[in-house]
Automatic annotation (TrEMBL):
It catalyses: D-glucarate = 5-dehydro-4-deoxy-D-glucarate + H2O. Belongs to the mandelate racemase/muconate lactonizing enzyme family. GlucD subfamily. Pathway: Carbohydrate acid metabolism; D-glucarate degradation; 2,5-dioxopentanoate from D-glucarate: step 1/2. The active site is at K198, H325. Keywords: Lyase, Magnesium, Metal-binding. It comes from Rugosimonospora africana. The keyword Cytoplasm does not apply. It is an enzyme of class 4 (lyase). This is glucarate dehydratase. One of its GO terms (molecular function) is glucarate dehydratase activity. Its EC number is 4.2.1.40. Gene3D superfamilies: Enolase-like C-terminal domain, Enolase-like, N-terminal domain. The lineage of its organism: Bacteria, Bacillati, Actinomycetota, Actinomycetes, Micromonosporales. Residues 176-270 form the Mandelate racemase/muconate lactonizing enzyme C-terminal domain. It comes from the Bacteria.
Length: 427
């Protein structure tokens, strides 16, 4: 790239990657239960112009190792050179081990390990570009097609508290009444206009009953159910038959492109995925097999904001719907997700977010929040959010103390159910 001479140019001088741990409630899923703390990493990318770009990434040990290795290779990179970022990260990581920080977003791969590393820095570069120009990230991504991004209430079965701890403020939800009460609370508080239930936890009949109870309690809300591939193809058929016409979409009922295609062949219920299509290489076989009708994007593992826009274009070409996936995250990620969704015209489904489950935050309050079921794009330059340095220090201390270094939903479940394996499909 030729040397830019504009006054908005800046190059990277140094990068800080700070691992943090945030309290997380005992949310249940097909693999097990959330640990008491979820790990994230906060990136601060500094430039010779005195700007600091922010980003938020996974915070497990293998991710931190990759972020630190890549950081060492980025000094001198222009904040505009996103292709250079891709090249430098790929070279710095070399023969990186295949890895994925979550078991619920497809198989680990080298491509994914590189993509998630690129993404973490790319978001910070966009934040810097915005701070250098006064533009918002959504404007740098082509302009906002919506100023308010709808999000869906993410309902979870959950225990009252982590074993041995006091009940948390969210309360227990282990049956249809508990799920409806949880939904009521989230809808009343945040105004959500659609509801997603994380399933694959209890026998499907119980989850069908929960969906029916939600339908009765919220007749106008689109509903989704996501058992994270914890059902066989046969079970998926049975559930799809009963929930056809009730759900907006059924997410990852069965595992793999082949399993999903077998389910899709016998139902008119739209199937969605964040498990069998998680890289660009997955798209041709999934399209050929007719496995899914909706893909959930996630900039954290698809390779960043630009890669997510490329995914959006491919989905448009093949007539696939586009939604957005989430893992446990804080406000920096919520800002990035919101800017991306604001600038992506065919992202027409309400996005997922775990943010309602987090009682701790790393950004200063006020810039970003779910209101009336949507997040308004922050008006400030870049991501439009400001790091709260005291919170960052406190959450880093919490990380050092908590001892958790990798997401593991199986071990805490095994502490309660010693025979638990987390093996899928269970039903
Ligand atoms: O946080 O337990 C969870 C979710 O199950 C998450 O890990 C999934 O990746 O929400 C995700 C999904 O839609 O599959
Ligand atoms: Mg999912």
């Amino acid at each position: 790239m030729s040397t830019p001479t504009t006054r908005t140019d800046a190059t990277i001088t140094d990068i800080t990657v700070t691992p943090i741990a945030v309290q997380d409630p005992p949310l249940l899923n097909s693999v097990g239960v959330h640990q008491s703390y979820a790990l994230r990493a906060i990136l601060q990318v500094r430039t010779d112009a005195g700007l600091v770009g922010l980003s938020e990434a996974y915070g497990d040990d293998p991710t931190l190792d990759r972020l630190n290795r890549a950081s060492a290779a980025l000094a001198g990179l222009s904040i505009w050179d996103l292709n250079g970022l891709n090249r430098r990260v790929a070279v710095a990581l070399g023969e990186v081990a295949p890895d994925s920080p979550t078991e619920l977003a497809g198989a680990p791969s080298v491509a994914k390990a590189i993509a998630s590393t690129v993404s973490a820095f790319e978001v910070a570069l966009y934040d810097l570009q915005g701070k250098a120009t006064g533009l918002r990230v959504c404007d740098l991504l082509g302009g906002a097609v919506r100023e308010e991004v709808p999000f869906s209430a993410y309902l979870f079965y959950k225990w009252a508290g982590h074993p041995g701890a006091e009940p948390d403020s969210f309360g227990e939800a282990l049956d249809p009444d508990g799920i409806v009460a949880q939904a009521r609370r989230l809808v009343d508080r945040y105004g959500f206009g659609s509801l997603k239930l994380k399933g694959g936890v209890f026998p499907p009949e119980e989850e069908i009953a929960a969906i029916r109870a939600l339908r009765d309690a919220f007749p106008g809300h689109p509903l989704r159910l996501d058992p994270n591939a914890n059902w066989t193809v046969e079970t998926s058929h049975r559930v799809a038959e009963q929930l056809s016409g009730v759900l907006e979409y059924l997410e990852d009922p069965a595992g793999g492109i082949d399993g999903m295609a077998q389910v899709a062949a016998r139902t008119d219920l739209p199937l969605a995925t964040n498990m069998c299509v998680t890289t660009f290489d997955d798209i041709p076989p999934a399209v050929a097999a007719g496995a899914v009708r909706i893909v959930l994007s996630d900039h954290h593992f698809w390779g960043g904001l630009r890669a997510s826009q490329k995914l959006a274009g491919i989905c448009e070409t093949f007539g696939l719907g586009l939604s957005m996936h989430s893992n446990t995250h804080l406000g920096v990620s919520l800002a990035a997700m919101t800017h991306l969704a604001a600038a992506t015209s065919n992202l027409t489904y309400a996005c997922d977010t775990h943010s309602v489950w987090q009682v701790e935050e790393v950004i200063e309050p006020g810039a970003i929040a779910v209101r009336d079921g949507a997040v308004r794009v922050p008006p400030g330059p870049g991501l439009g959010v400001t790091l709260d340095e005291d919170s960052l220090a406190r959450l880093h201390e919490q990380y050092l103390r908590c001892g958790i270094r990798r997401r593991d939903d199986i071990t805490p479940m095994r502490a309660v159910h010693p025979d638990w394996t987390g093996a899928r499909p269970r039903f």
